[in-house]
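Lab notebook, bench 4. The sequencing result for the construct came back, and we need a structural model before the next group meeting so we can plan mutations. Quick request posted to the team channel:

Model the 3D structure of this chain.
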Amino acid sequence: MGFKGFNFECIRKWCMNKVINLVVVAAFLLFVVIIILAASIGSNSPSIIANSNSVLSTKKIGWGIKRADNHEQPDLGAENKRIIDEFNGYAMGNKDKPYVYLTFDVGYEGGYTSKILDVLKENNVCALFFITGQFVKTSEDLVRQMIDEGHVIGNHTSKHNSMPDISEEKIKEDVMTLHQEVYEKFNYEMKYIRPPKGEYSEKTIAYTNSLGYKTVMWSFAYDDWDNNKQGREDYGKKKILDNLHNGEIMLLHATSKDNANILEDIIKETVKQGYEFKSIDEFER
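Done. Here's the predicted structure in token form:
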């Protein structure tokens, strides 16, 4: 039996059409997959954020440290340290460098910020001020002074909401409303953020990273924020000086009258003990 009756040209064309159709379908499916992935990655409010290993946790964590004696670096806690390191945040610097990074939280103007700024200027110390929306609204002149005198301005959010308690949409609103306001009023673009109340989760840090911010926590703080616990200048001075350590990120509240009164002594004694105040922009791990 021969092949005389077969039309090989028709068979060849039929096969080619099948191959072309399969290629077109495959290309279309690949295009759809790419579009879906791009939409997922580009979304401003992703429901799930994942790193290379696992889905990020939404568990609320309150930042806390265990102080050490003899000016040794404190214990940040394994979970705190893991998360802050993984997301490239700052909490404590190089253990071999006698550097101190001075930061202030300024949720509102308590009447002491001007004095604090004067002391910093007289002693040539650059600080990082974390401000809120309320502070910007009531104290534009002080924000301008901070910027003009070379200090760094950080984002403490517009309304000081605990980030793990609100949606990503609300986090974005709190962070970027203040960001835009500071940019429009002062032509200054903030890049550091401190979570209100020191409360965060893996997911909130990842999300604020995606908004262009680096998280800055602290390796020393004390109960200076409590207005009912003022008039304890000796207590505050001792607490601060006893806990000086290499790479320290010091958190003080500018709403504290005690801090305003003891700041110059703190700066001079810190330098006398061999430490050097550094800008957060000079941070060394």
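Residues 90 and 216 are 5 Å apart (CA to CA).
Will bring this to the meeting.
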